[in-house]
TrEMBL record:
Keywords, comma-separated and alphabetical: ANK repeat, Receptor, Repeat
InterPro entries: Ankyrin_rpt, Ankyrin_rpt-contain_sf, Multifunctional_ANK_Repeat
Annotated organism of origin: Clonorchis sinensis (Chinese liver fluke)
Superkingdom of source: Eukaryota
PANTHER family for the chain: ANKYRIN REPEAT-CONTAINING (PTHR24123), PROTEIN HOS4 (PTHR24123:SF33)
Residue ranges, annotated region (Disordered): 1-88
Spans of repeat ANK: 164-196, 197-229, 264-296, 381-413, 452-484, 557-589, 590-612, 626-650, 658-680, 692-724
Biased composition (Polar residues): 48-83
Record protein name field: Transient receptor putative cation channel sub A member 1
Biased composition regions of type Basic and acidic residues, renumbered to the chain: 36-47
Pfam family, one: Ank_4
Length: 825
């Protein structure tokens, strides 16, 4: 590299030789080889003797001739080396100096070359290198001159993409820069590449609305029916943005489908109706566009116009329909039932007749035309234009639909009429407008029900719209009509919390004593479905009790309103019902009193109110069909505070019909805190047995309640068998309750349990090895297998782990009752 660089910068080799300079081609610094061997042959011959002498010294004195290079250089400076070696090292030093000089010359040459080349680089190219986005700035600022120079300097920028994935041609069309567009096309811009949204130049021209660019693209014969990623063609964008002139030019100069399907099958007519592009709508209709063509969702243009409140487009659609009707033109496609004499009807034929065999080939069926107007078209949900107008909330559209003969009793897929729609929106003015437009249909319309059985009055009550409710009743709406579940408007309002509407219905004469299919009256429903607003509930409650005894009635399940109030914790209503004399001893079909339900749900305040009532103590001892009193219900669900209140009032520890005490039930469901409370007040329950001989310890072990088992063992529970001879440990082993068995083994009473079952069929060791060997290997204390040690005997390490497989083998071999003896090691 150094030799080439020195030759490149123009240094003559002859001059260097005269100066005693050696290049890399003549001299190698490592081997010391010189191209002119004749010059150094004499010196080498003269020094040969000294070199051989030096070699002899090396062999005799063990001196190393290949010493360190640093020492060589030092010796050269001191003159201690022979002449040949000193000369060779001096040549190396000279070569290094010449290399440094050559490198400096190379850098200077490169710098001069760089300056020479830069003189020929134009200022435009320099600006492009400094700002790569300069072409897009030229498009944005509409400077075609600079852009032309850039294209001439670097033609590849025509394919450059900006941060949004758009080419120069896309930006030029969007910026409406015709001159730049023409220049880019002349430089070979590709018009068949979309931008980041999938829009081609034809789409961008349609969006921008520039007539000159649009005509220029049409003259280039590009495809004007190309779709973007959303399936839209340029004609859809023209209809969307109401570019009338461009639409006219497109229809005149290009062959496009006037009814082309766009996104979801929508035609240009749909987009005109959505964006209220009335001028383009008129143009499309003039060129034969189909105003009755639906999209994939069966939405017609009239629905789209009404949904988006495009009033001008609505008027144009109705006017076009009237024009066709006046001119005896069919507003819809004709269903022609014709038999062609030249074509025999067969399988797959598009011709069809009622009785082909009865039609002669020379005769023709009369034309059968289905007349369908705009106002009767339905979408995929069955909505008519009137439904859509009501849903939009625009009264002018509703008037327009009514003017063209809309039916206020038309039902959609859920059997709802436009009046139902208006009531669900609490639109009183819309309801008035429709009922006043069809006065002879008011009675029938107000009695129509939807799929849920709701009349318009039900819906008005459901949404708690009192003025609408009053107007419907005034117009003759049936006030006591029931839905599919037997609910009147009053009962529905009580169930949903529409208390203002309920009060107004009672004032208007609604039947307060009515009940639903489950024989629940208004008081039942208010207690069962409590909503916010206690004042409104109390007012309805007072109004419903004027002349009725609704608070004492039972529903089909035997529950009074007090049952529901106690179960759901309506303590205010409980106090009110108690003040009215409602008894707390009434039972439902399952034998539950309000006290049972309140104790089961843990309603502290309700239980307190019931206990303070005159019949509270009697209710404390009432039993259900299973013989359980309120205390049983409370301990089963673990309600500690309710349990304490019941016990403080004198709750007795009676057994149910199965012989289970409250402690049995608490142990069965793992209620440790309840067990502690019960044993604290009545320790005698600890060892009580039921009719099957089961103790609370049995229940706890059977249901894997390890904490309760540990507590009962600590409390001193006796280890007794059941009537079937089953112990609590056996229950745990049979069900493989790991946690319970672990608690038993780790308990301080384990030696007692071991000694009691050792040598019997209930041997715990045998059961552990057979059922849960993993528990045996992990937690069992193997010291029980070792003999007792004397006091003076040396303590040895206990056996901490025995192979489970070995123990299982021992059990299989010893079928009889043999004691397992393990060596002490």
């Amino acid at each position: 590299f150094l030799a080439m660089s020195t030759t490149t910068i123009g240094v003559r080799p002859k001059a260097r030789r005269r100066q005693g300079k050696y290049d890399a081609a003549q001299f190698h610094p490592l081997y010391g080889t010189h191209s002119n061997e004749q010059e150094d042959s004499k010196t080498d011959d003269s020094n040969r003797g000294s070199l051989s002498h030096q070699t002899d010294i090396d062999h005799s004195g063990n001196n190393n001739t290949g010493s360190n290079k640093n020492d060589d250089i030092t010796n050269v400076t001191n003159g201690s080396y022979p002449n040949s070696r000193r000369k060779r090292l001096s040549k190396t030093v000279n070569w290094v100096k010449q290399s440094v000089v050559s490198m400096s010359f190379a850098e200077e040459a490169h710098y001069r070359w760089k300056r020479c080349v830069q003189k020929h680089i134009s200022n435009v190219h320099r600006e492009l290198q400094a700002n790569p986005m300069l072409p897009f700035e030229c498009v944005r600022q509409n400077t075609p001159g600079l852009l032309r120079e850039l294209l001439r300097e670097q033609h590849s920028i025509i394919h450059q993409v900006d941060q949004k994935g758009s080419l120069l041609i896309h930006r030029a069309i969007s910026a409406e820069a015709l001159e730049i567009v023409q220049m880019l096309v002349s430089f070979g811009a590709d018009l068949e590449i979309p931008d980041e949204k999938g829009n081609y130049p034809c789409h961008l021209a349609a969006i921008s609305g520039n007539l000159e660019i649009f005509e220029y693209l049409i003259d280039l014969n590009i495809d004007m029916s190309r779709k973007n990623n959303e399936g839209l063609e340029p004609i859809h964008f023209l209809a969307m943005h109401d570019h009338l002139e461009l639409l006219n030019r497109l229809v005149e100069l290009a062959q496009v489908d006037i009814n082309a399907s766009g996104e979801c099958g929508s035609t240009p007519i749909h987009y005109c109706c959505i964006h209220d592009s009335v001028r383009c709508l008129e143009t499309l209709i003039a060129h034969g566009a189909d105003i009755y063509k639906a999209n994939n969702h069966k939405t017609y243009p009239i629905h789209a116009a009404l949904e988006n409140v495009s009033r001008k487009c609505i008027e144009v659609l109705f006017a076009e329909e009237e024009r066709k009707q006046r001119g005896n033109e069919q507003p819809t496609r004709k269903l022609l039932l014709v038999v062609n004499e030249n074509e025999k009807p067969g399988r797959g034929s598009r011709r069809w007749s009622f009785r082909r065999s009865s039609i002669s080939p020379s005769k023709e069926m009369p034309q059968m035309v289905t007349m369908v107007n705009h106002i009767n078209l339905v979408d995929c949900e069955g909505d008519t234009p009137l439904h859509t107008a009501v849903r939009s909330g625009d009264l002018e559209q509703v008037k327009l639909c009514l003017h063209h003969g809309a039916n206020i009793m038309a039902i959609q897929n859920d059997q709802e009429t436009p009046v139902h729609y208006a009531c669900s929106k609490s639109d009183l003015e819309c309801v008035k407008l429709m009922l006043e437009a069809r006065p002879n249909q008011i009675e029938l319309c107000l009695s129509m029900v939807n799929r849920s059985g709701y009349t318009p009055l039900h819906i008005a009550t459901l949404y708690d719209h009192v003025p609408l409710l009053e107007y419907l009743v005034e117009q003759g709406a049936p006030i006591d009509a029931t839905d599919s579940t037997g609910l009147t408007a009053l009962l529905l309002g009580a169930k949903k919390g529409s208390y203002r509407s309920c009060c107004r219905l009672i004032d208007l004469g609604a039947n307060v004593s009515s009940s639903d299919a489950n024989e629940r009256n208004i008081v039942h429903l208010m207690m069962l479905h409590y909503q916010s607003g206690i004042q409104g509930m109390m007012r309805i409650f007072e109004m419903s009790l004027v002349s009725q005894d609704l608070v004492f009635r039972k529903d089909s399940s035997g529950c009074t309103p007090l049952h529901y109030a106690a179960e759901h914790g309506r303590h205010c209503m409980v106090r009110c019902l108690l003040s009215l004399g409602v008894t707390i001893l009434d039972r439902n079909a399952e034998g539950d009193t309000p006290m049972h339900l309140a104790a089961q749900r843990g309603r502290n305040k309700v239980v307190q109110y019931l206990l303070e009532s005159p019949e509270g103590i009697r209710a404390l001892y009432q039993e259900d069909v299973f013989g359980q009193n309120p205390l049983h219900r409370a301990v089963t669900q673990g309600h500690v505070h309710v349990t304490e209140m019941l016990l403080e009032k004198g709750g007795i520890f009676r057994k149910c019909h199965a012989g289970n005490s409250p402690l049995h039930l608490a142990a069965r469901y793992g209620q440790l805190e309840i067990c502690q409370v019960l044993l604290k007040l009545s320790p005698a329950m600890l060892d009580q047995v039921n009719f099957e001989g089961l103790t609370a310890l049995h229940f706890a072990a059977t249901n894997d309640c390890s904490e309760v088992v540990d507590f009962l063992l600590t409390s001193g529970a006796q280890i007794v068998p059941s009537n079937d001879g089953v112990y609590f440990v056996t229950d745990a082993l049979n069900r493989r309750h790991y946690n319970t068995l672990k608690a038993i083994i780790m308990h301080q009473r384990w030696p007692e349990i071991w000694n009691q079952f050792d040598g019997t069929t209930h041997c715990v060791l045998d059961g552990l090895i057979r059922e849960i060997p993993s528990l045996y290997a992990v937690t069992y204390d193997f010291s029980v297998l070792q003999r007792e040690k004397d006091i003076d005997e040396r303590i040895k390490d206990p056996l901490h782990r025995v192979s489970v497989s070995f123990l299982q083998t021992v059990v299989r071999i010893t079928k009889t009752k043999f004691s397992i003896v393990l060596p002490l090691g």
